[in-house]
Amino acid sequence: AVVKIVSDIIGDNITAAHSMLINKPPDANRDTSRHPLHQDLHYFPFRPADRICASWTAMERIDERNGCLFAIPGSHRGVLYPHVYPENVKNKAYHGVYGFENVPKVNLVMEKGDTVFFHPILLHGSGPNLTKGFRKAISVHFADSNCEFIDVKGTSQENIADEVEALMKKRGINVKYADFWKYKSRLVNGTPGTFQNYASNLEGRLNFARPHILWIEDWKKVVFMDEKRFSPDGPDGFQYYWHDLKKEPKVISRRSQGGRGAMVWGQLKPFSSRDL
After folding, report:
1. β-pairing verdict for 250-256 and 267-269
2. Residue 152 pLDDT class (50, 70, 90 cuts)
3. Helix (H), strand (E) counts: the chain
4. Which of 139-153, 199-213, 235-249 has the weakest average pLDDT?
């Protein structure tokens, strides 16, 4: 149903450019969990704006107490404003705009399963979570697969591009801002377009692999899988490593019993490999 509505808004060739499961934490001081007033287009190096659409789905009742969305009606007809870090904002990349403090805003109170769709120019944000529990929602930004990628250098978006590129470089991945969005996107419907047009998916994988070539002891704790098609089962548990450009690298240990068996595509041992 979501993809059908999105296709009515931006057309049939759809790429999921960005997706998040938002687990807004409880926040007694109001700054850790609030998301300042901003425009999503600030983060996107692709155009036109009218071919981009956000979907935001509540996983539980969301209201003023646990940090619902708020928006300025009609602001989607405006322009992209410069974004900076507002005072006291704690979260990385939570840029915001100034000058709208006295403009009336509407709170979007939502029940579990409700979904709101909005334009990337819309001025919106979310308040602090003043409850004792986490507030959960799913956010996906869709774009026409044939959107045009732009160079944001010299524009108001240069600050976020520099910040993301620096963060990726710190993780050992040298990637241009536009390619960062291409690598993390997924074709959802229709035919491939400019989002799928980059030198090679292999290039992105190599950029991740190069800084790990000198690993020695670390490899002994790693099993590589492809496409997450690894469904092990049994009493002994297992440990695996998964890296996604959208998330922090992590090692996961799991112990499971009963149910279905395991399918393994291949194994990489420390210093050598073997057929299974």
Report:
1. unpaired
2. very high
3. 4, 15
4. 235-249
